[in-house]
Amino acid sequence: MIISASYRTDLPGFYSAWFERRYQAGFCLVANPFDQSLRRVPLTAPEVDGFLFWTRNIAPFVPVLQRLRLDEVPFAVHYTITGYPRELEHRVPASQRAVGLCHELAERFGPDVVVWRYDPVLLTDLTPADWHRRHFESLCRQLAGAANEVVVSFAQMYRKTTLNLRRSGREHGFGYQDPDDEAKRALLTELAAIAAPHGLRLTVCSQRQLLGPGLDDAACVDPGRLSRVAGRPIVAARKPHRTACGCS
After folding, report:
1. Cα-flanking dihedrals φ and ψ of residue 57, to 5°?
2. For 29, how many CA atoms within 13 A lie in the half-sphere containing its CB?
3. pLDDT band at 20 (very low <50, low <70, confident <90, very high)
4. What pLDDT is recorded for position 238?
5. pTM for this entry
6. Which conformational region is residue 17 in: left (phi greater than 0), alpha (psi within -120 to 50 degrees), or beta?
7. CATH code linked to domain 50-230
């Protein structure tokens, strides 16, 4: 079993002490968000083959990763770095700091540990397509050698997302756009071509309608990556998070 921690929150950024205690105990209890029933989840071998962590700030979690490495437990880190203007992201660490931490992870734990996430791709008056081309290229240069894959997806315009964008747009004076699939695919194709010379393979998360030449389906929970980290085969049944998801 591969533990993905977590879709719901930035566990490495905010709950490192909690995770360390639960790892020591060997299990945690996870509440069902709909009926609040509790499920016991093991956190150690033999039930657990490895971990996948999702974060925007790995700094508080590095001691935990060191413990996992000492215990020979494989892990990978999906690290979101977009570097958007503060009008769009006002509570995340600066991208320069995040880039430095990615290089630190790669140096300590190996080149397959870090997966860079450049998502969601959000088109606004502050971040038009040309801004993404230039900014993405800059981040690719900075992250070369720290990661070998960049996962992208366009912002899903859920009702809450739309309301938040409208409110922020009124406050800061910008609008947003949700282009058609053809325009999205064209931009992603350009980003893939930008990423490749920097040793980064671009994959698309849960938006298969945007796939095309040079645009591969992402498998964020990836036993192949964990196998390379572990140096041994790790097998996991396919268990997609969403219909168009390629995860195990």
Report:
1. -155, 100
2. 4
3. very high
4. 64
5. 0.93
6. alpha
7. 3.20.20.80
